[in-house]
């Protein structure tokens, strides 16, 4: 309903403006000054309305403004035809209503200034004073906006046709400042016009009119006579006085932003203390974050665009002033939220990183100031504030792209302490990802300790935090990142690397049963890499009891792996024990290697009960033991016979058979003559064949027919015999192989075997070897192939 009324009133007022403008133009065309003034005054009388909303009033004003441009041209032409400009200036003041009179006075006043018959100062002073007669906020704002518009190109300035002396420049400056002051007062007064229930509507309307006031500051910034001295001593204090004293949130926020945007960067830099000094005096409801961020962003861009400007930042101590000002703002605005205060320090941090990137002490100081502010709030429960902290902490990480640099900031971990567990973990993931993406190598134990303290939410189990609630896939991804992180910890110096391993172990072992199986393996393999770089032997190569030796490193790993057996990760612990045993073998540490095998055997006996897991574990044990060369005869026999005993106790006969014939490799090593026992090899193979026979009988008894699986076992055994035949085992003869081949033929006839492709491949291989030249062919010639037919 109100919108319809506005449209109706605007339509009526616009029609009146058009009608009077038509008659005014006709009078202008006929050079009738009296009628031109008459109809122009009637046209301008439409601007006296109080019924229109600001945006509707603006449409009406623009129509009148366009017509006044024609009238101004007419006035100039009249003075060219001999009409006295002074008389015209007096004549327009006879208009009946004050508002049309002042519009006409401003129009003829602009012509009067151009004529140079009087000084511009006198006319400007006269106009700005007489405009005080209109105190209605809306009408007064547009009247003074018109005054600014028609006089902006008539102000005395250096190099223009109206160039004057210093006094003239100062008077022009005074005119703009006075007009700005009056306009701001009118603009602020609008909030009190009308009932309180319409306050929100009025604030919206005021916001639409803010550019009318801001134009004055733009004009000020364009005046040639305004140098740094005048700006510092006159312009800025006068503007800030008006900004602070108006005590209006909208005006203060907008005008502070205008000051920052319209005046030069070097002016801001040299008057930083004055501008920042006004910030704590602003209303508590003012969005001070926007004001300060705008200023810091402007100066950051200035520093980035001009290398010559950087010394000025140091000279004026810009960082100290910003830091002090933000502290004062936080102190003055007691209701400032945690999110808002963190945002302020975030802007200061970004400014510091842009302008003082090489000053880590400044960056750390900002972090410390943030800690001081957060100390009053404790752990952050506000999601918005927590997100701001994440952004705050990411800023230096993204700037330096080096976690090593971040570790030098003593207050960085102190800020992270105010995050809740989940947010802290999210930040820890960001830190780890930064290391991985930038391939950052952490090279000292102290740095590693500091890093793991930063990322402890990914590594350590905390009381009251249940990881079972975490998505399993996410948890696995987090711990995989930690595992990758361990491999980024490296130092060429074995002694320092040992300290790093020791430090990592200290932190890793604080994890719980879900974490340890994922984080201990990378620790073990990182340590095993170190063992390869450390001289072997029990003697200390560095002459220092605290120094690294293979034995000490393996003892450290022994303690770490023991933890896995306590957290239901026996399979993994057994694998790692065998890896360490292999490393001890390479270093010639027999006692240590035997200890690792002993622990692996104990785990196999006591912890591994699943039949499939037993088969896998046993094959790993046999494979590792076969490669061991450090054991004496007694120790090797003990471990070998133990492995054979485990093989015969597996649940399924086929598994027993395969494990037993794998044990044959424990008695034959190509490169060691003292580890070639052909008789034991054959004994193992025959024992395996007996187990295969037993498996065949059990299958026949239960199913009434021979089994395909048993035939496959025989073929596997045949391949083992062929392997040892080629290796030169004198106990493996053609007769032995021939008898096994005959057995395979007879069993194949009893059942339509699925092992046919396996048999055929074996036979083709044997035929191929028979046809080769040399000793290998002779070995295969002793085997008769007729059984195949």
TrEMBL record:
UniProt keyword Transport, yes or no: yes
GO cellular component, one term: Golgi apparatus
Record carries keyword rRNA processing: no
Keywords: Cytoplasm, Endosome, Golgi apparatus, Membrane, Protein transport, Transport
Annotated compartments: Cytoplasm; Endosome membrane; Golgi apparatus, trans-Golgi network membrane; Prevacuolar compartment membrane
GO terms under biological process: protein transport
Principal localisation: cytoplasm
Membrane topology: Peripheral membrane protein
Database matches in Pfam families: Vps35
Alphabetized InterPro entries for the sequence: Vps35 (IPR005378), Vps35_C (IPR042491)
Biological function: Plays a role in vesicular protein sorting.
Family: Belongs to the VPS35 family.
Protein name: Vacuolar protein sorting-associated protein 35
């Amino acid at each position: 309903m109100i919108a319809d009324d506005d449209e109706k009133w605007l339509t009526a007022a616009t029609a009146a403006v058009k009608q009077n403008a038509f008659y005014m133009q006709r009078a202008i065309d006929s050079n009738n000054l009296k009628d031109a003034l008459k109809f122009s005054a009637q046209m301008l009388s439409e601007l006296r309305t109080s019924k229109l909303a600001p945006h509707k009033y603006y449409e009406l004003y623009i129509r009148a403004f366009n017509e006044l441009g024609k009238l101004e041209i007419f006035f100039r032409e009249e003075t060219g035809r001999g009409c006295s400009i002074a008389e015209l200036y007096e004549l327009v003041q006879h208009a009946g209503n004050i508002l049309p009179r002042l519009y006409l006075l401003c129009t003829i006043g602009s012509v009067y200034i151009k004529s140079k018959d009087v000084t511009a100062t006198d006319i400007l002073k006269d106009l700005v004073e007489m405009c005080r007669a209109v105190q209605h906020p809306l009408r007064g704002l547009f009247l003074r906006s018109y005054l600014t518009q028609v006089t902006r190109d008539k102000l005395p300035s250096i190099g223009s046709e109206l160039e004057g002396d210093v006094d003239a420049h100062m008077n022009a400056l005074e005119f703009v400042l006075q007009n700005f002051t009056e306009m701001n007062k009118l603009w602020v007064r609008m909030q009190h016009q009308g009932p309180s229930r319409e306050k929100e509507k009025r604030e919206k309307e005021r916001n639409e009119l803010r550019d009318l006031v801001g134009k004055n500051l733009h004009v000020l910034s364009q005046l040639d006579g305004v140098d740094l001295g005048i700006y510092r001593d006159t312009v800025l204090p006068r503007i800030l006085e008006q900004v602070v004293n108006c005590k209006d949130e909208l005006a203060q926020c907008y005008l502070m932003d205008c000051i920052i945007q319209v005046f030069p960067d070097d002016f801001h830099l040299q008057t930083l203390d004055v501008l920042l000094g006004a910030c704590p005096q602003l209303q508590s409801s003012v969005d001070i974050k926007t004001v300060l961020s705008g200023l810091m962003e402007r100066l950051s861009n200035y520093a980035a665009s001009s290398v010559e400007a950087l010394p000025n930042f140091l000279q004026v101590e810009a960082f100290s002033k910003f830091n002090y000002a933000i502290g004062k703002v936080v102190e003055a605005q007691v209701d400032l939220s945690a999110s808002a205060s963190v945002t302020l320090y975030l802007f200061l941090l970004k400014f510091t990183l842009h302008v003082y990137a090489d000053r880590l002490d400044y960056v750390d100081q900002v972090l410390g100031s943030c800690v001081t502010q957060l100390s009053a709030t404790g752990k952050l429960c506000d999601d918005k504030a927590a997100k701001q902290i994440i952004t705050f902490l990411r800023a230096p990480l993204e700037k330096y792209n080096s976690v090593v640099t971040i570790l030098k900031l003593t207050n960085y971990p102190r800020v992270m302490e105010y995050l809740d567990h989940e947010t802290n973990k999210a930040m820890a993931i960001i830190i780890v990802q930064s290391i991985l993406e930038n391939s950052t190598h952490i090279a000292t134990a102290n740095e590693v300790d500091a890093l793991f303290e930063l990322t402890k939410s990914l590594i350590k189990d905390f009381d009251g935090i249940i990881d079972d609630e975490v998505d399993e896939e996410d948890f696995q991804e987090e711990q995989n990142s930690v595992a990758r992180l361990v491999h980024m910890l490296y130092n060429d110096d074995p002694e320092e690397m040992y300290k790093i391993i020791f430090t990592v172990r200290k932190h890793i072992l604080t994890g719980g049963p879900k974490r340890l199986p994922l984080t201990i393996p990378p620790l073990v393999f990182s340590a095993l890499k170190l063992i390869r770089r450390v001289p072997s032997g029990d003697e200390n190569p560095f002459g220092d009891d605290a120094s690294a030796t293979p034995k000490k490193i393996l003892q450290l790993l022994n303690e770490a792996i023991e933890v896995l057996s306590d957290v239901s990760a026996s399979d993994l612990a057994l694998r790692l024990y065998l890896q360490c045993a292999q490393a001890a073998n390479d270093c010639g540490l027999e006692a240590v290697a035997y200890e690792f095998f002993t622990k692996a055997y104990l785990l196999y006996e006591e912890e591994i009960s699943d039949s499939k897991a037993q088969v896998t574990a046993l094959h790993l044990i046999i494979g590792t033991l076969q490669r061991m060369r450090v054991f004496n005869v007694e120790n090797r026999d003990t471990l070998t016979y133990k492995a054979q005993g485990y093989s015969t106790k597996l649940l399924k006969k086929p598994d027993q058979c395969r494990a037993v014939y794998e044990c044959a490799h424990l008695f034959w090593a190509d490169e060691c003559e003292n580890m070639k026992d052909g008789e034991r090899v054959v004994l193992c193979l025959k024992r395996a064949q007996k187990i295969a026979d037993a498996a065949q009988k059990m299958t026949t008894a239960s199913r009434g027919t021979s089994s395909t699986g048993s035939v496959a076992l025989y073929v596997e055994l045949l391949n083992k015999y062929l392997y040892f035949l080629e290796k030169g085992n004198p106990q493996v003869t053609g007769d032995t192989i021939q008898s096994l081949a005959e057995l395979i033929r007879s069993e194949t006839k009893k059942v339509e075997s699925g092992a046919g492709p396996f048999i055929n491949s074996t036979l083709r291989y044997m035929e191929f070897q028979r046809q080769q030249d040399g000793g290998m062919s002779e070995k295969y010639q002793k085997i008769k192939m007729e059984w195949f037919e």
